Each structure stands twice: as structure tokens, then as C-alpha cells.
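Page 42, continued from yesterday. The earlier attempt failed because a stray header line got pasted into the input along with the sequence. Redoing it now with the clean sequence only.
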Amino acid sequence: MTEPINPGSHVVEVELQIDQVIIMGPAEATATVRCTLGPVRCGARFDRIRDSADAIDLELTQILAYLRHPVEELDPVHTALVSLRGTGVRLLTSVAPGSRWQVIRGTNPPS
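This time it went through. C-alpha cells are written below.
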């Protein structure tokens, strides 16, 4: 389990690495991801891309384990197909050979 961002806070930071991304529209994308900090739950909000000054505001709307089974959360080191909606989807990129994975960071919804 990850630690809260601020001691005494219930806000927990989460992180996804993006493998492949398909932009579905101006505010929607699907992506194959790996959870690196979590677990990440449906409804998580992502507000930044690691090593980037670009602003995003993306909500995780669906997690499909094994590319077809809907689940409510994704544990660290597991991969899944996810749906993201909001501002900044066009900033998401697929990993290229020899490059670093793009990482998005945010927080889970309140429990």
C-alpha cells in the first residue's frame, strides 16, 4: 500500500506507466498500462505527466484486466487496458523502442 501524500491525509498518490495508447477522441483514450504505484482505482484523477510541465486532468473510467474483465482496481506490477477521459489525452504517448515509458501521476477517489 502506498503512503498518503501528506501525513494525516487520506489522499494516496497513484501512478501508471503507459505502454500503448489509442486516442479515441479529443477527450478520450484507451491505453495498455502497468501500475507502478497503487493500487489504482476506477475514478482516479491524473493531473501530471512525470518529467513534463504539461497539465492534464484525466479520470480513469474503466479498468479491463486481461484486456476483457472489468475490475475496480489495479494492483502494482499488474497490467490492464484502461479508459481515460478528460483534458490532455493528446499528450499521452506510446512507448517507443529504446525510450522511457511515459508515466502519469494522480490520486485515487475518496474511499
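Notes: The chain has one domain: 20-102.
Reminder to self: strip header lines before submitting.
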